[in-house]
Amino acid sequence: MGARFRLKASYVIASTLRGDTKAVLRGMKRHGLVLADNGTPWYFQGTADTRWRNALLDELKQIPASASRRWTRRR
């Protein structure tokens, strides 16, 4: 299980970030993400794939939890 979060619309995506990091952050603003309730807090995990660059993951780890808000879909 997990909780859905979305990057706040007011969060400014720095122009100094890598292009792929900016793309992921834009996706986090628009579509959100699911945080699992196991493991360490705000831990990014995924499949082992060479297309996920360490520099991208390092930049994502710098985004503070306060930049996100819990998101629930309205019915």
Short account of what is shown:
The chain is of the alpha+beta class.
Helical stretch tally: 2
Helix and strand composition category: alpha+beta
Number of domains: 1
Please state the overall shape, judged from the principal axes of the Cα atoms.
Answer: globular
List segments where confidence is low: pLDDT < 50 over at least 5 consecutive residues: none
Order of helices and strands: EHEHE
Fraction of residues in H or I helices: 25-40%
Distance between the termini: 20 Å
Relative strand content: 15-25%
Radius of gyration: 13 Å
User: How many beta-strand runs?
Assistant: 3
Account of the protein in words:
The protein is α+β, with helices and mostly antiparallel strands and 75 residues long. It has one domain (2-70). The chain has 2 helices and 3 strands; from the N terminus they run E-H-E-H-E. The chain has helices at residues 19-30, 54-60, and strands spanning 2-7, 33-36, 68-70. The protein has a 3-stranded antiparallel β-sheet. It is globular and about 35 Å long. 5% of the residues are buried. The model has no long low-confidence stretch (mean pLDDT 85).
